[in-house]
Amino acid sequence: MMEESGCEELSFGIESGDQSVLDLMNKGVKVADNIKAIQNAKEVGILTRALMMMGTPGETKETLHRNMSFVEQAQPDMVSLKMFVPYPGTNIYHNPEKYKCKIHLPLAEVNNSAYRPDRSEPKANIDSEELYQEELTWQFHHMKSYLETKGIENRG
Known about the structure:
Blueprint: E1 9-15, H1 19-24, H2 31-43, E2 47-54, H3 61-74, E3 78-83, H4 91-94, E4 102-103, E5 126-127, H5 133-150
Parallel strand pairs: 1-2, 2-3
Antiparallel strand pairs: 4-5
Helix pairs in contact: 3-5
């Protein structure tokens, strides 16, 4: 119906290809459902954009590979990758222990986008239960390079 009504492009708030991250962040969705949603849109000719985050609570060394696997399976036309930021007012900001993370402050000059030349390079704002800030930052940049190599990184 969306394609018939003239819809040409859809952005999907995927966040992560790692089910444990989605569960910890209470996203209420399954990775397999996200894959199917993108595939269904593509089948009818709608351009697809996956909105993804890294540097999230619950992230492990396996998360990078799970995110890459998600991209390989879903085959979105574009991926917009951002760094997770635990903004003031959110449950994660006020209850980091519930999300098994430690927040690094201050957040005032945080750059969550690799596409802001006026700001510093993105870096993780947390330590997850398994990975430190530096490791989460490395995983973000590695994923960004992977998307660039595939030619699907969306710079918007």
